[in-house]
């Protein structure tokens, strides 16, 4: 997305300018300038993504149209509304993910969401808080006293994985396979060749693993989230085991990668803006506001997940035929000057902050309370206990991961520290 999208001829009509697939497949260092150029021409544009496909596809780059896209019932989340080839490839390579609530419209989505909505109630989040604090402190205790290391590997990646393992009730010893599974299953669906074969391999491993875990919970009930999901499914008799497995792996992927990117991207943004870093250090009560700005300015989600039109419609003044892919550019909506004053300015005191990183409407992220809790504890503790955090290279030169057009995160974040302050309440 760092490359300037040059106009070409639209492959499906022959007379409309089309944005090349690179816009959503090459994250680059700065996708925001390209989005701004597109937004100046209009809010919705034909795009060649999936690349080379004869199917209609459009990218949406303004806040109002992205918000409408999230909530419009005529823009479907189901595989049934997608082109047949995409549907068949997705189901063939990952039947597990094909059963989760991200690929459903109401009322089916409403039914599936009940499986996870009870997990993120405020009471449960408060019960989890001490464990999140303990994990955060343990990770910081393990930082080298003097030296350089990758903050992603040492902190941003293990923190949410340890939390989600504790939350679900699965062994942290299995974290490496969860990370591998999440890496593969979070890549763009509808792929062919080796990518499709790898997704199928991982799909089978995930299904076998969580089928065994669910059987264990039925045989020996436990007080954890997976135990709660099994009890809810069995008592209500309205969820299949395939849906339980799909929900479990969805929680692992959504609960890990996006929160890891929130922490990594947030630290990166602070290191790029030292005056904001010092402001937050001096005013830790701004942490909640800062997290919302991290989510807006360089959010962990670049683009919304699968959406296709269920009928012909007009979006942002653009005619969009039935069966078209609709790519909602969350990162572009979060920099729309019609909504955000000076949108390219990083300001941890920004208010209001109507960012779209957690979505909008029926598909608003169910895990947002947990992500915010982890972010709050992570940043409060990190900035209190590590007062001299610094990047060892210019932050703007760091590369971004390019394995998915949906999420946005750094490949690495090399930092240097000297010493750590003790935990709160310790000598």
UniProtKB/TrEMBL annotation:
Record bears the keyword GTP-binding: no
Record flagged with keyword Iron: yes
Coiled-coil features, chain-numbered ranges: none
Family: Belongs to the cytochrome P450 family.
Name by which UniProt lists this protein: Cytochrome P450
Entry-linked InterPro entries: Cyt_P450 (IPR001128), Cyt_P450_B (IPR002397), Cyt_P450_CS (IPR017972), Cyt_P450_sf (IPR036396)
Lineage: Bacteria, Bacillati, Actinomycetota, Actinomycetes, Kitasatosporales
Superkingdom of this protein's organism: Bacteria
Annotated organism of origin: Streptomyces diastaticus subsp. diastaticus
Keywords recorded for this protein, A-Z: Heme, Iron, Metal-binding, Monooxygenase, Oxidoreductase
